[in-house]
Specification:
By secondary structure, this protein is α/β, with parallel strands linked by helices. It has 10 helices and 25 strands. The strands form 6 sheets. It has an 8-stranded parallel barrel. A 7-stranded antiparallel sheet has the order 2-17-19-20-25-22-23, covered by helices on one side. The longest helix is centred in the N-terminal third of the chain and has 26 residues. It is elongated, with a radius of gyration of 27 Å.
Length: 489
């Protein structure tokens, strides 16, 4: 019996010995991230900073953005009224009202002005005004009568289509005339106007798809009658949602020659769901199906009008708990990689924008850089792991920036990514360049820079050479390299 056990143990040891090179290779698997800065076909676009728009609902008491950098802008949500408070209609917030005594409809833009003034007085800009939630008076007919003498109240207030689209169109003309007269045409041309919010969600729009498309047509016609070059668009759910009307809207707009300057989408990925955090899969299913179809207007932009990386969602679906800062910081780098790769624009955030400040800072420093396409070789250690990098060139400062991230949909993941980062640049081999790096420290929520050091480029071409780095990038982290050329090149 003992001899048999020793024999089996010997066989096990031999098998493990034979397999050990394979085990070692898997444990040390390397991911190569590379680009060729000398190849003009890799040039994609100038990098904009897409994280400076913040949503605010009916901001009657001013606004605060703790991370305001001088360029922060506000998206004003529900500025027209139609608001519910504790399940009851709050008619005092409406800008379109029914006079019980006069038996006439009238407009009152006092609170609309207060909201806009509150933003401008803080030194902030307005990126967008959302013309959603029609005032409660739009549930009345031309005689001021309500169906069954009562209002229909939804989670977010008035989700009902206006009973009289002509009255709605005339009202929007009054809104636009007031805005142009009060703030000037130039200022309003810098602001975009969003017809509706998360259309497809019954709590935001209780009508049919066809009703909304007609509503949009009436709205943009009214707006542009007053301000012909106004930027107008709308906002839907992500493409894989069973209420994704954005695809049909783009096709309908093309077929009916209806204009739009932008389409907004919502994106609330669960931080631990692979199908919501795999950027290639997400883009293909949620955004490409809207933006990369033949009917898409190439002059329009695709924006993300609501975003949060969430840990959990309330049963009602109208509130959530954010994922931790570590997840947020690494994820946002990957999200912006998807944006630059596919020419998406602007992420509208809720709150103060403090959940991924260090990654934001790294991205802000790259604003104005030229984004270059890159390649990835090798495979991540698990199906829930996502590793990649943003490569860019700062032409004015003669500097190259590389921002890599390591995200994992498994919250308990612990494996680092072994990276080899390589780039070809337009200088002769043997040239000395300065390099520094910073790695995000998950536990301390810090990203300190190393000291500058010199490295020598290598290669066989006369005026082109390579730079390369190897690094262990912890999970839920990001790292940044800065490479500066000598003044003589």
């Amino acid at each position: 019996m003992i001899d048999k056990k020793i024999s089996r143990l010997s066989k096990t040891i031999i098998i493990l010995f034979l397999l050990s090179p394979l085990i070692s290779i898997k444990a040390q698997a390397q991911i190569v991230l590379e680009t060729d800065f000398t190849n003009p076909t890799n040039v994609k676009q100038e990098m904009r900073y897409h994280l400076n728009v913040f949503n605010r609902i009916t901001p009657l008491n001013g606004v605060k953005v703790s991370k305001a950098n001088g360029n922060s802008k506000i998206c004003i949500v529900r500025p027209l009224g139609g608001i519910a408070s504790k399940g009851k209609a709050d008619i005092t917030k409406d800008s379109y009202k029914w006079g019980a005594n006069s038996k006439k409809f009238y407009t009152d833009f006092t609170l609309l002005k207060k909201q806009i003034d509150g933003v401008f007085n803080q030194g902030l800009g307005i990126h967008q005004i959302v013309l959603d939630n029609p005032s409660w008076a739009f549930q009345r007919n031309e005689k001021g009568e309500l169906i069954r003498d009562s209002l229909k109240i939804s989670t977010y207030g008035n989700a009902e289509p206006p009973r009289d689209y002509k009255a709605w169109g005339n009202y929007l003309k009054d809104v636009m005339a007031f805005l142009v007269e009060t703030y000037g045409e130039e200022r309003m041309l810098k602001t975009q106007f969003d017809i509706g919010r998360e259309i497809g969600t019954p709590t935001h729009w209780s009508g049919t798809k066809a009703q909304f498309f007609e509503f949009y047509k009436v709205s943009i016609t009214a707006i542009r009658e007053v301000l012909p070059k106004a930027k107008v668009g709308t906002h839907f759910l992500w493409g894989s949602s069973n209420k994704a009307w954005g695809i049909d809207f783009v096709k309908w707009s093309k077929a009916n020659k209806v204009h739009y300057d932008f389409v907004g989408v919502s994106f609330y990925p669960f931080y631990d769901k692979p199908n919501r955090t795999n950027f290639k899969e997400v883009y293909a299913k949620d955004f490409a199906v809207i933006k990369d179809i033949p009917e898409w207007d190439e002059k329009a932009k695709l924006e993300m009008h609501e975003y949060a990386l969430i840990k959990s969602l309330s049963k009602a679906g109208n509130s959530f708990v954010n994922a931790s800062e570590a997840h947020q910081n690494s994820f946002i780098v990957g999200l912006m990689k998807m944006f630059y790769e596919n020419n998406m624009q602007n992420v509208f955030q809720w709150g103060q924008g403090t959940k991924h400040e260090l990654a934001d800072k790294a991205l802000l420093e790259m604003q104005g850089n030229i984004y270059y396409k890159s390649k990835k070789k090798g495979a991540e250690l698990s199906k829930t792991s996502y590793v990649d990098a943003i490569f860019s060139k700062d032409v004015s400062k003669r500097k190259y920036n590389i921002l890599a991230y390591n995200y994992n949909a498994n919250p308990k993941a612990a494996a680092s990514a072994h990276l080899k980062i390589s780039a070809k640049i337009n200088i002769p081999p043997g040239t000395k360049v300065k390099v520094r790096s910073a790695v995000y420290n998950v536990k301390e929520d810090l990203s300190p820079w190393s000291k500058w050091r010199e490295i020598t480029t290598n290669g066989n071409e006369k005026n082109k050479s390579n730079i390369s780095f190897e690094a262990e990038l912890p999970v839920f982290s990001f790292l940044k390299y800065e490479v500066i050329l000598s003044d003589s090149y």
